[in-house]
Design a protein that fits this description.
Mean pLDDT: 90
Strand content: 15-25%
Order of helices and strands: EHEHHEEE
Radius of gyration: 12 Å
Structural class: alpha+beta
């Protein structure tokens, strides 16, 4: 599973993206078919604590939107597959 971080999520995780093999739930990722919410909880724990002066990823996730394979995912019970790409998109400012 590929995870891509944008904006504040990138700052909180300290990386642009990562690939999770999804082999061992709770260690390498989440099992195939696990819901989006489980993945988000795993990522929040995996990247805790955040770099100094940056909000924790858990906080960023709580106000973010998500794409799964390029489509909006509003339902955190959405089952994920090992081949999925998940984008974490915090609110963006600008104009």
């Amino acid at each position: 599973m590929q995870i891509r971080y944008f904006g504040a999520a990138k700052a909180a995780s300290g990386i642009d993206e990562e690939t999770l093999p999804g082999l061992e739930p709770g260690v390498d990722g989440v099992s195939d078919g696990a819901p989006l919410g489980e993945l988000l909880d795993f990522l929040a724990a995996r990247h805790d604590p955040a770099p100094e002066g940056v909000p924790p990823l858990k906080s960023v996730i709580s106000r973010s939107t998500f794409l799964v394979n390029g489509f909006a995912a509003r339902d955190r019970s959405l089952p994920l597959a090992a081949s999925d790409t998940v984008d974490i998109l915090p609110p963006f400012a600008g104009g």
